Amino acid sequence: MRIESDIKLGFKDVMIRPKRSTLSSRSEVSLMRKFKFMHGGKDWEGIPVMAANMDTVGTFEMATALASEQLFTAVHKHYTPDQWKFFMNKNGNAISEYIAVSTGTSKQDSEKLDTILNENTSLRFICIDVANGYSEKFVAFVKKTRDKHPDKVIIAGNVVTGEMVEELLLAGADAIKVGIGPGSVCTTRVKTGVGYPQLSAIIECADAAHGLGGQIISDGGCKVPGDVAKAFGGGADFVMLGGMLAGHDESGGELVEKDGVKYRLFYGMSSETAMNKYAGGVAEYRASEGKTVKVKYRGAVANTLSDILGGIRSACTYVGAKSLKELTKRTTFIRVQEQHNEWFGE
Question: Which positions ≥6 away from 276 have C-beta within 8 Å?
């Protein structure tokens, strides 16, 4: 047993210090980024905000809405090959730059992934997603997938430390999902005691990835647009959102009504709800590591996207960053005890 005494920080522990700026309007800020990936294919250009690969967020409907604004969706892994084929035939090649096919690491997952990619050749992004990205089996699956699909862009995760980011990049991944336990419906930290404060994870993992020419995706922990700005300021190349995109027309989850108010169910993919739905229940050797909540119905996702992107643009103007790429270079974090005035509640 050993103890690391270095302080690790989450989004709530810091704010971004303002700096002098020559920008006169938020409209001058560009959120577009262009990335060259280590292994897979041509460059990518768009706004690097992602919908998480949860069946209550990463839906085909969400992908369509986000792609129209050049944002990305990691589509959840529970769609069938036939559903994928129908969706791609309907939407053509235009959407393929902004969606990833998600997969687990079982033999059945691998076969299903191969079928989807073989039937829809324009798809170029793969998201290999497990809760614990530290296993040898996971690394081996990344290597195998890279060998089988040398021209694809591979997203892999989740991890929270620099050495594992490096190992996965060298195994064939292009972008690494960073985050263990910060999600709004994730209970890993209370069930297992395992985790890592998200901002420190971003900073350390970004340093490791960028040294090799890879990218990282901050996955989880964002509650407000300011947290998204902090994630980018800390060095994240992409920011993946779950709860912030839940509850919309384009989101999955059952629509329910209580006391005249409409809600959508939102749950973690390791929750009892998800495992009952897809795995026949929680296996006897494990505990569920997610919860199910009701998110107030919020209509179309467009207004929420406008709020998030507007917040990021505003953060850029406060530090004089003309583009999202400049934000991390102009970010100085200050440690704080309090974020905002809570006199009137949340």
Answer: 282
Query: What is the pairing mode between strands 153-159 and 14-16?
Result: unpaired
CB 161 within 8 A of CB 153: no
At 145, list the tokens. 């997938």
| Upper half-sphere CA count for residue 197 (Cβ side, 13 Å) | 13
Contact (CB, 8 A) for 147 and 189: no
* CB atoms near residue 1 (< 10 Å): 2
Active-site position among 186, 205, 222, 316: 186
Rounded to whole angstroms, the Cα distance separating 126 from 99 reads 9
- Whole-model pTM: value is 0.94
By the 8 A CB rule, do 243 and 198 touch? no
Query: Which parts of the chain sit beneath pLDDT 50?
Result: none
Distance CA 322, CA 22 (A): 9
> How confident is the model at residue 94, as a pLDDT?
80
Distances (CA, A) of 271 to 186, 220, 267: 8, 16, 7
Amino acid type, 316: C
d(CA 242, CA 131) in angstroms, rounded, equals: 15
130-156 burial, b at 16+ Cβ within 10 Å, e below that, comes to bbebbeeebbebbeebbeebeebbbbb
Spatial distance between the Cα atoms of 145 and 160, rounded to a whole number of angstroms: 22
> For the chain, give me the number of helices (H) and strands (E)?
11, 15
Q: Given this model, what pLDDT does residue 343 score?
A: 86
Residue 281: per-residue pLDDT = 66
Q: What angle, rounded to 10 degrees, do the helices at 60-67 and 302-319 form?
A: 50
Question: Is 186 considered catalytic here?
Answer: yes
